[in-house]
Amino acid sequence: MSDYIASLHKISKAYATGHGDFYALKDIDLEFREREFTGIVGPSGSGKTTLLNIIGSLDLPTAGEAKVMGLLTSQLNARQAAALRSRHIGFIFQTYNLLPVYSVYENVEFPLLLLKMKPEERKKAVLAALEWVGLLDKQKSRPAQLSGGQCQRVAIARAMVKKPVLVLADEPTANLDTENSLHILQTMQNLNTNLGTSFIFSTHDDKVIRFMKRIVRLIDGKVASDDYQAGV
């Protein structure tokens, strides 16, 4: 593995439209190290989600090179890209993406089933993840029985249960009130500190931005600034 969790060199992403190509990203150069707590910040349409999708190997750039865990994503086939995500990357979405017919325990356990982990190891990992987010007492509940904040905490536990090197969080507080947003952010900040997991957020929420150690600002698909916040 390289010194960087993710390294983007001259990344551009174009989409064909009726009026020619639309560039969601233009000539992006960025590198992310272990243990970073980074916000990709910008208004809607600035390219934040597209950038996260490329880092997460869910999408490929039109031009440039994206390396994740030292692997050039353009050289991975579908199975190899899926293996990279399953083993090393956790995803947190603003809509939670929980399986409604499964319990909290089963939702968190699901990524470990894909890794073919032994049952006793799965149980230990799931209970630890639920303890991290303060939901041990809700393990038998279904998503419909939970609040929005609790559902997002389940999503965090699911992302963290395999102890990934990197977690990508796309607007994780967009549907939450201030109290729940702060609780979620403190949970992720603690996991970053205690487990050494790197987090990269897509956000335009000031509450989230205040927690970030590093802020990369995108405007019209380009990096406008890349700074570290003092005292965070």
Would you mind describing this structure in some detail?
By secondary structure, this protein is of the alpha/beta class. The protein has seven helices and ten strands. The protein has a single domain (6-227), classed as Rossmann fold (3-Layer(aba) Sandwich), CATH 3.40.50.300. It has helices at 48-55, 78-88, 104-114, 119-132, 148-160, 178-195, 206-209; strands at residues 6-17, 20-32, 37-41, 63-68, 71-72, 89-93, 166-170, 198-203, 214-219, 222-228. Strands 6-7-8-3-9-10 form a six-stranded mixed sheet, with helices on both faces. Helix 6 links the parallel strand 7 (166-170) and strand 8. The longest helix has 18 residues, at 178-195. The two termini are 28 Å apart.
Task: Set down the secondary structure blueprint.
Blueprint: E1 6-17, E2 20-32, E3 37-41, H1 48-55, E4 63-68, E5 71-72, H2 78-88, E6 89-93, H3 104-114, H4 119-132, H5 148-160, E7 166-170, H6 178-195, E8 198-203, H7 206-209, E9 214-219, E10 222-228
Parallel strand pairs: 3-8, 3-9, 6-7, 7-8
Antiparallel strand pairs: 1-2, 1-4, 4-5, 9-10
